[in-house]
Amino acid sequence: MTLLGFGIAGFLLVFNLLKDRTRQIVRLLASGSVALVASIVVFLLSLLGSSGWRLAVGIFTSTVIVCLAIFEVVFKIVVVLENKVGNIRPASDDKLQMKAASFYRSYDEVKNLEAVLSDPSITEQYWNELQSYRLRGMFKRDKAQTILGNTDNVGINLNVVDGKRITPGSPNQFESRCMVFGASGVFAYEVPDSGTPTAWLQDFLNKNHLNIRVENHGVGGATIQDCFRRLKLVDIGSKDIAVFIFGGNDVGVNTLKKAEGKGIFKKIPFWGPAIRLLESYSGFAEVLFAKTIELVFTDLESNPELLDSVKETIVDINNYVKVHNAFALFILQPNLFTKNSHSEYEVLIKNRYPKHWERTVLDGYKVLWSKLDNNENVVFGGHIFDDEKTSPYLDWGHVNSSGNRIIGRFIFENITKWKLT
């Protein structure tokens, strides 16, 4: 009866701990494994009898260590299996942002999106090419895994040369360059080379007989500080134009203030920081993180000083390009949350993300604009999709080819307004 009781207790504990986090088959597998281990432990302890307390303590300690190792292996398997089809972490996890991009999803998951159905260039063939590039390693990293730039790629519709995605139609002989810096929205993973914002910008320049070569310096995850570091690696010429598309990564939708226990775990001192520290190394701790931790995020409107570095970097970039007799334009990029109104389709996309994201983005943009609105080189692009009847959004921040065409035209209109007239 004792064996049965401990077995059932172990089974129910794990089964409830994994509730709403895993598929049923994985819950049963993990729960059954733990129940078996618990029963074995009790059985071994029952054999000790009167063999002495020292022996009992030794066997018990050894057994606990072995069981914890088995327990950890089981939960590590659970985490690996679940992260292949979803995310075991809570929706408000501070590490979720990177996986929120649609280019991390399969073609079957995106093919019925309105933005994909309306864009004939986003084909299964292209998506397979994209996934091949991603899985081979699309970033160059240092030993600390910091992203240094893009990995080169030779493909049919996705080509990267010297770390820059190619821009079709770029002239070999040119009077000046327009270098566009930014994050994944500039690289534009979701669309072929011909559908990126830089490709459309080049097309507008060519049609208006402006001999300017456009370069795509977009790198996924980049902040304005990252863009400045990459600008310094480029040989800037007189009359060159440096365009910076920023905002989404700079406001930090996941600016974490603290992690604390929820429910009864809130009463345990240092539970939140301890589990958050361990969850990167332990499958069991990762499940505990998902089940017992509540993340509290920073209110940017109440803490506007957190974005002071963005303004300072923009000032530094302006000074830097002036020394080289070049010109800088900064565009506060559009995203789904900055639209004035949302279609039913866009509401469904918004609902995929943690509840605090929209508030953080809107507060962050409000703070940034209040800091930058007196800078004539900074323009607000958050409204540029307001009048679109068909949504260009595949996710909260990435758009299809028609969306990139609008971005390219917006860049063209602003550089001709500020620089070329």
Give a concise summary.
This protein is α/β, with parallel strands linked by helices and 421 residues long. Helix content is 46%, strand content 12%.
Would you mind describing this structure in some detail?
This protein has 421 residues and is α/β, with parallel strands linked by helices. It has helices at residues 2-17, 24-46, 53-85, 107-110, 114-117, 124-137, 184-187, 197-207, 224-231, 271-278, 283-292, 308-323, 344-350, 355-372, 401-418, and strands at residues 139-141, 147-150, 160-161, 164-165, 176-182, 212-218, 241-246, 256-261, 293-297, 327-332, 378-380. The strands form 4 sheets. It has a 5-stranded parallel beta sheet, with helices on both faces. A two-stranded antiparallel sheet has the order 1-2. Helix 1 (2-17) packs antiparallel against helix 2 (24-46), helix 3 (53-85) crosses helix 11 and helix 8 packs across helix 15 (401-418). The model is unreliable at 84-98 (pLDDT under 50).
How big is the Rg?
A: 26 Å
Low-confidence stretches: 84-98
Query: How many beta strands in the DSSP annotation?
Result: 11
General shape: elongated
Strand-pairing-aware structural class: alpha/beta
The span between the termini is: 88 Å
Q: Mind describing the biggest β-sheet?
A: 5 strands, parallel
Q: Strand order, biggest sheet?
A: 6-5-7-10-11
- Following the backbone from N to C, one meets helices and strands in this order, namely HHHHHHEEEEEHHEHEEHHEHEHHEH
| Residue fraction in strands | 5-15%
Please outline the helices and strands.
Elements: H1 2-17, H2 24-46, H3 53-85, H4 107-110, H5 114-117, H6 124-137, E1 139-141, E2 147-150, E3 160-161, E4 164-165, E5 176-182, H7 184-187, H8 197-207, E6 212-218, H9 224-231, E7 241-246, E8 256-261, H10 271-278, H11 283-292, E9 293-297, H12 308-323, E10 327-332, H13 344-350, H14 355-372, E11 378-380, H15 401-418
Parallel strand pairs: 5-6, 5-7, 7-10, 10-11
Antiparallel strand pairs: 1-2, 3-4, 8-9
